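Hi L.,

As promised, Aspartate--ammonia ligase:
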Amino acid sequence: MHLIVPKDYDPKLSVKDTEAAIRYIRETFQDEFGKEMGLQRMSAPMMVEKSTGLNDNLNGVESPVSFKMKDVPGETMEIVHSLAKWKRMALHRYGFKMHEGLYTNMNAIRKDEDLDNFHSIYVDQWDWEKIIAKEERNTDTLKTTVRRIFKVIKHMEDEVWYKYPKAVHHLPDDIKFVTTQELEDRWPDKTPKEREDAICKEDGAVFLMQIGGPMKSGKRHDGRAPDYDDWKLNGDILFWYEPLNCSLEISSMGIRVDETAMKAQLKAADAEDRVNLPFHKKLLAGELPYTIGGGIGQSRLCMLLLGKAHVGEVQASVWPQSMLDQCDAANIHLL
């Protein structure tokens, strides 16, 4: 557990006003995001059958919350970590066409999460996925999509400022693009998180590309599951967050694996046994559409726009008593 306690913190909004602002941000953003991206809202599961291979295994070490279901004997159900693979299957199953897509409210439990100002065991985000052509699986498509998402976030800043002028946290006017290798070349002696902090402090908002595969040093900037993002065509949207003097990740996204990338990444992750799972079979057989997609943190967006010191100010979760005590002493009101 790691907690940053800002000096003389002022939440600016009462708990009741914060709750009203949360509702406004969530409802307004999803409508504007769906229109800008051409996405239809769809319902999504909170749990999936383990045997489908649809759950996200994150860095490969986090175990999902699981349980047995009385009416489905012999099967293990897992609370989702994310819907990264489920969305691609849904686009295929529901007959979405070229350049059509979906977004959904995703609620997950990540019980092995390391808790801090940004991380909770409860994850709430807008998961989205959109069909693209094979020839659109390139950096230009990725950057264009990132700029559209950034445009919606910036517009939300204006909307929130109009309603809550004393509370809004102002964002940079543009987003820059950089690769993990460029950061390693520039700051070889820094840790990945220190590099993210340094580049975000310099540029304000950054899309950090190519996460998951090894860099020239042989090390990885961060882990990524091998069976959804193409490690050469993915990234994170990061902001410099002055209230806590560090970077804040709002979105992880990317162009998804094709058959070739899937095989290579499963081999690199020593996970070739997954080729026999239903999702992986369909993908390798060319039955699933080529897509781009990701997740945008709902609580993190509220936190970013309202300048909050802790994600627990904009979502109700479970926290260690020591963290509750520290936050209470620092005027940080956890829900």
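Residues 167 and 178 are 30 Å apart (CA to CA).

Thanks again for sending the construct details.

K.
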